[in-house]
Each structure stands twice: as structure tokens, then as C-alpha cells.
Amino acid sequence: QVQLVESGGGLVQPGGSLRLSCETSGFAFHDFVMKWYRQAPGKEREFVAGVGNPAFRADYTESVRGRFTASRDDTRRTAYLQINILRPEDAAVYYCNARSEDLDGRITEYWGQGTQVTVSS
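RESULT FIELD:
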């Protein structure tokens, strides 16, 4: 059974930090790109960050570059998103996504249930 379980969300003051985790099971973690998305009320879900394997390069949406760091630990089958210098506009439900594409172009994709990040003073 495939599972992606996010944790680490919460209420943080502007300028604060959080570390989100995405623990996984039930699929070949090493073969998947691990991404983070977020969705604020009334807005569409948007890509935030992603890290492939080998994990020497991560991609970020422009608004979080320099503040967020995506990483992964394949021995723990876990992806992480370190969020620093939080802004009110970062408040959203953050979702973990695992995505793989085979040589024939078939995509396999899994989602977590989300973790809430609230930014408020």
C-alpha cells in the first residue's frame, strides 16, 4: 500500500522556520522525484520545490528560492522541506508528491494528505 505522510506543519510567526517531512512507503522511493506543492484558500495548487535522485540538485518556484530547501533521505524513504523566513503568503496546505516517468512516458504519481502551515503574528 502506497503511503505518503506529511508532518511538521503548524502556526509560525512571520520570519520563522518550519521543517516539513514526508515519510513514504509502498513504492520504489529511489526511482521517484519528490516534490512539494502548496494550496492556499481560494487558489490553485502550485509547485513549490522538487528534488530528484541523485539529490544534488533541487528546483524551486521563484517566490521561495533562497528561503526553502528541499532534500531527501533515501535510506529513510523521506523527503523534507526546510522553510525559512516565512511570509504570510506562504500560508497554505503543503502536499508531498512522488512522481516517476518510465521509458515509455508513463507517469506514476502519488500524493500525501497535506499538512497545514499557518503564518501569523
